[in-house]
Amino acid sequence: MSDERPEPATPEKTSLEKPAPAPAEGAPAPARPPSPALRASDADRERVAERLRDAVAEGRLDMEEFEERLEAAYTSRTYAELEPLTQDLPSPLASAPASSSASWQSRIGGPAGASSTGPSPTASASAVAIMSGFERKGRWTVPAQFNAVAFWGGGELDLRDADFAAREVVITCVAIMGGIEITVPPGVEVDVRGIGVMGGFDQGRSLENRPEPGAPRVIVNGLAFWGGVAVKVKEPKRPKGNGKKLDGGETRKEL
């Protein structure tokens, strides 16, 4: 008899998982999410900030939450710090409502200029009032950087019918024993960063409005010394009729 014994059959290995298909030759490798430890760029922080602005416009965040998250976004250093800021928000909308977005888009961009009653376009980047006053209103273009100075005087900047040279404009105000009033239309995001010394930057309750998608952003900074800078949100003025109604319902035109 032979001492050799038959070897036991080895069971074949089975798996319920299907092997991943091999990538086609020349096909790009699938994109991987960035590592949380990687440093975030300025563009990454701006994308998060834009998403937060959309969330405010949609009513998903109140102004207090928005300001807290926006500050955290601009101070974040890594993706791990940015990710929680939008984790509870849905994916951003592919496009803003046509009526709102198209309306703002037509008012943003182009060279800075002034209204027909204001200064020439070359002088439109600043306004100075020394024991006097200045006024910018109507159809004019707000430059990306605008300087306003009021010394023993006053000034008014009305942006309700204005165009904007850039998506974000910065207005630097210096009010010394004087005052400057800035009026913006609803839907515009306003960020007031000024310092008051025996004076103040008054943004009031009127700034508690929701920024609209695609609307410009207005940053107001500077100094108020024994003076004040007031920022208000008001609806654009409607054209007044050129006549008065009489008792019988008739309209008398003014000559």
Structure description:
This protein is of the alpha/beta class. 16% of the residues lie in helices and 28% in strands. It is built from four helices and 15 strands. Strands 1, 4, 7, 9, 10 and 12 form a six-stranded parallel β-sheet that branches. Strands 2-5-8-13-11 form a five-stranded parallel β-sheet, with no helix packed on it. Strands 3-6 form a two-stranded parallel ribbon. Helix 1 packs antiparallel against helix 2 (63-75). The protein is globular, with a radius of gyration of 30 Å.
Stretches with pLDDT under 50, minimum 5 residues: 11-18, 27-31, 93-99, 113-123, 242-255
Would you list the SSEs in sequence order as H and E? HHHHEEEEEEEEEEEEEEE
Q: What structural category arises from helix and sheet content?
A: alpha/beta
Q: Quick one: how many beta strands?
A: 15
Supply the number of helical segments. 4
Distance between the ends: 134 Å
Q: Which percent range fits the helix content?
A: 10-25%
Radius of gyration: 30 Å
Instruction: Give the averaged pLDDT, no decimals.
Output: 75
The fraction of residues assigned to DSSP E strands is 25-35%
Can you tell me the overall shape? globular
Largest sheet: 6 strands, parallel
